[in-house]
Specification:
seven-stranded mixed β-sheet, 7 strands, alpha/beta
Length: 252
């Protein structure tokens, strides 16, 4: 049985290992939630794409308690942790790469004010990403936002700047962690897989289609092109440190 306290402990450990890749992860969370708050709606409808265990969704609802936050992910284990730790959130099992995922959100016709994501959409290949953004545009209200925080590289368009961005990120990581970095992503998953209390959720992962597959869409240009094709108009970076950026797009 996965308890509330155990789930929170696993998520705290998840957050810490994520910070090993993103030493300014909390600053990016803050900038993203600032942008949602700046919409000026006390009760926005927000969809968290690739929510994992709900780290961003929980922070967003804490800042904006009147919001409706729908957290979407394909991984049953991460969803299980999130449901146990954050019963106030709505978690939806769905694979963004599969057409029709917006029909599972339970929106009852309500338009979405903002779609948010952090460190998730780069796992989706370029061709599939176009489908994700095109389907998202069908439920996002005109003027609504996509806010995507992730590592996005620019070596295809500005290679010198891209090298500098990577170096800025490397130096910040060294300053924060020195010779004692947190556990990495693989070590966290190895520990998860060894916990007998999570056996059922681990078993569910093998048939849920949640595995990463195909090439990653790590280039900023992949996202900008896909967003433009989906009908988003203004597209730009709201916050950045190195190649860690918060991309914002406005639905036309």
């Amino acid at each position: 049985m996965l308890t509330h306290d155990a789930a929170q402990a696993w998520i705290a450990r998840w957050d810490h290992q994520q910070e090993g890749y993103l030493p300014d992860r909390e600053a990016r969370f803050t900038a993203l939630i600032d942008a949602v708050e700046a919409l000026g709606r006390p009760d926005p409808v927000v969809v968290d794409l690739g929510c994992g265990p709900g780290s961003l969704s929980a922070r967003l609802l804490e800042r904006l308690p009147g919001a409706t936050v729908v957290a979407v992910d394909a991984d049953p284990l991460l969803l299980g942790l999130g449901r146990a730790a954050y019963p106030q959130l709505t978690f939806v099992p769905a694979d963004l790469r599969t057409s029709g995922w917006t029909g599972l959100l339970g929106l009852d016709g309500r338009p979405v004010d903002a779609a948010v994501s952090t460190t998730a959409l780069h796992w989706i290949s370029g061709p599939e990403l176009k489908g994700v953004y095109a389907e998202l545009a069908t439920v996002l209200r005109p003027g609504g936002l996509l806010l995507n925080g992730d590592h996005m590289d620019t070596e295809d368009t500005t290679p010198t700047l891209s090298r500098l961005e990577h170096e800025v990120h490397r130096l910040e990581t060294e300053r924060v962690f020195g010779q004692n970095p947190p556990e990495d992503w693989r070590s966290w998953w190895d520990a998860i897989e060894a916990d007998p209390d999570l056996a059922a959720l681990n078993a569910a992962r093998t048939t849920a289609g949640s595995a990463h597959r195909g090439s990653e869409s790590h280039l900023l240009s992949h996202h900008v092109e896909a967003l433009r094709e989906a009908g988003f108009t203004e597209i730009g970076t709201l916050w950045q440190r190195g190649n860690n950026r918060l991309l914002c797009a406005v639905r036309g």
